[in-house]
Design brief:
The radius of gyration is 20 Å and the shape is globular. The N terminus is likely disordered. It contains 5 helices and 5 strands. The longest helix has about 35 residues. By secondary structure, the chain is an alpha/beta fold. Strand 3 and strand 4 form a beta hairpin. Helix 2 runs antiparallel to helix 3 and helix 3 runs parallel beside helix 5. The chain has a 5-stranded mixed beta sheet with strand order 2-1-3-4-5.
């Protein structure tokens, strides 16, 4: 009997903490529905500067074109995301986003900074395609407004699965995120 009591004494706080985390995640997801998701696109600032300094116009042009294609692919992947409004910004505007200074940081349909886009967002999260800090797994990362990973049980990483058996496209990862957010918001 003492062993059972001790086991309950040890496990009950962990269970309650886990339940509080889930309740917190669900509350944040419900709040996000009234806010927006801000998706970070690559600006390539350091690489572009290095290529400019080298005077390699051909490499700069090729890199800029590749970056533009990658960013367009990310934007297209979010075309069918319906959980909340989605806005895009370049990584060079990350500090503005962190300080909630959205005016001039958000991009229009042509992926140009647009100062007329300045929504009043009580809540927003950020997202980007990349590698998770902790696990070094590639996928779609969901981060808080300070670009910190969200705690479990929040769907903070949608894995890419880079294997011959299973591979997710960017659009498929976005679709999985959309479904997870909708499912959790209904709890």
């Amino acid at each position: 009997m003492k062993k059972i009591s001790l086991l309950l004494f040890i496990l009950l706080p962990a269970f309650l903490l886990g339940q509080n985390r889930k309740d917190d995640a669900v509350a944040r997801i419900k709040a996000l529905k009234e806010g927006a998701l801000l998706v970070r696109l690559k600006s390539g600032g350091l690489q572009k500067t290095a290529l400019e300094q080298l005077g390699d116009a051909k490499a700069l042009g090729a890199y800029s074109k590749k970056l533009e294609e990658e960013n367009s692919s990310v934007v297209n992947a979010f075309r069918h995301f319906t959980f909340c409004p989605v806005y895009f910004f370049y990584s060079s505007s990350s500090e503005n986003i962190r300080h909630k200074n959205l005016k001039g940081a958000l991009l229009n349909a042509q992926l140009q900074p647009d100062s007329t886009l300045s929504p009043s967002l009580p809540v927003f999260l950020t997202a980007e395609f990349g590698f998770s800090d902790k696990q070094q797994i590639e996928g779609l990362l969901l981060l808080d407004d300070q670009f910190n990973p969200l705690p479990a049980p929040f769907p903070y990483l949608i894995r890419k699965f880079e294997s011959p058996v299973k591979k997710r496209s960017q659009a498929e990862m976005v679709e999985v995120l959309d479904k997870k957010l909708k499912s959790l918001s209904e709890e």
